[in-house]
Amino acid sequence: MKDIDPQFDRALREVLLPQVRSSSKPRAQRRRWFLFAGALAGAGMLGGAGATAAGLFSPPGVPTTAALSTPSTAIYTGTATAEPGPAPEGATGIEVELTCLSVGKFNFPDGANVTCSSADLGTPGAWSKYVVPLDPSARGLTITTEPGNRWQISVRYVSQVATEWELNAKGETYGVEVPGRGVPDLLAVVATNGAKGYAYSAQMQGTEPTTPEEAARNFPRPQREIPVYLSDGATQVGVFMAPG
User: Fold this and answer.
1) Which of 14, 25, 178, 239 is most open to solvent, judged by the fewest CB atoms within 10 Å of its CB?
2) Using CA atoms in the order 195, 99, 114, 178, what is the torsion angle rounded to 10 degrees?
3) Are 47 and 177 in contact (CB under 8 A)?
């Protein structure tokens, strides 16, 4: 799979992480496969986004984000609560930039999490960006982790507005996965050759094992080549490697 330079890796994370980590708890294992720290850019799966880095792919469905406060940054050890202050009018979420300063798992209030290994520390793999939906009843934003785990966090209030998927000439929807709406016919991805395009969502679904024994036999699961097209769903620009 194509290597991604650190600057592109960080920029791609800025585009992708806000939505992908807002998926519900049952989707946590699928998120870990292609989106969690250290593997995001190389895997090439595009979720929704809160901010679009300059020059990068911004597919339909990516929400627009407006900052409503200045960032508040601090370093913590163990479970702690970051205080962004009173929520301004119009705020829909808290934008979080979290950097692992030690190996560990760091949990957001809505069940999403970031896991950092020793290989991530001091690299772009230790950095994550995410928008936590605003909870008016909560005071601050609490990250739970094991005692002794160190992390840096920057928080600010934002307002996000959803955008719509678009249709190609064949009447197929294309864009990114949107919470509450599901996935379009053509899902935004980055191909192994670096080309940005779309893969058919139906082809992205692998065959799930039905028994523990079957899962054990098929682990690790072999990868499959999925064609990547332009938004027309016909002009191929590369391939995406997905689990079997």
Assistant:
1) 25
2) -50
3) yes
